[in-house]
Specification:
Elements lengths: L3 E6 L5 E2 L4 E8 L8 E3 L5 H9 L5 E4 L2 E14 L3 E8 L4 H12 L4 E13 L5 E14 L16 H23 L1
Keywords: Hydrolase, Protease, Viral release from host cell
Protein name: Prohead serine protease domain-containing protein
InterPro entries: Peptidase_S78_dom (IPR054613), Prohead_protease (IPR006433)
Length: about 180
């Protein structure tokens, strides 16, 4: 199975401190995305327990690029709302400094998870309910890897948004092909 991605805007509750500490939700439970997927509460539990037992952490990447870690997630947990993360951008890295500034400026507005589906079921509405996921990483992203989950701001031209989404998909596909070689 290929690594999958889901996008969530930082939205309410995101904070970025002067020390480049960030926190917010990387995934929300019970919300249907444009791909007709719904993450069920508890879907990350086994993966998070397995990582903790092995003494490993969920990786913090820049744009899902495994060659560009930009910080560390100090806390990743499920609560009643979703998958909550808190971590530190490493300002000792160029991308970490850039990410901190882009977030402060409002130019970067999203988190995206990288995972593999371990268990899913179809519900009576034809939606894929993700019941068990193997979480690999949470990335800071400019364009979501799941472009259809991005909500256009009021006044944004939908055609322009679709063009940017298409460009992001082309770059993601190219990156995946390069990773295979």
């Amino acid at each position: 199975m290929d690594l999958e991605h889901k996008f969530a805007r930082f939205g309410e509750g995101l904070s970025v401190t002067e020390d480049a500490v960030i926190e917010g939700y990387a995934s929300l439970f019970g919300q249907v995305d444009q791909g007709s997927d719904v993450v069920q509460k508890g879907a990350y539990r086994g993966s998070l327990e397995g990582l903790a037992t092995a003494g490993q952490r969920v990786k913090m990447l820049w744009q899902h690029d495994p060659a560009q870690p930009i910080g560390v997630w100090d806390e990743v947990r499920e609560d009643d709302r979703g998958l909550w993360v808190k971590g530190r951008l490493l300002k000792s890295t160029q991308k970490g400094r850039e990410a901190a500034e882009l977030i402060r400026a409002g130019a970067m507005d999203g988190l995206s998870i990288g995972y593999r589906t371990k268990r899913a079921v179809k519900n009576d509405k034809g939606q894929r309910v993700l019941t068990e996921l193997e979480l690999w990483e949470v990335s800071l992203v400019t364009f979501p890897m799941l472009p259809s989950a991005r909500v256009a701001a009021k006044g944004v031209d939908p055609e322009a948004e679709n063009t940017w989404r298409s460009i992001a998909e082309v770059f993601d596909h190219a990156r995946q092909e390069l990773a295979r070689t």
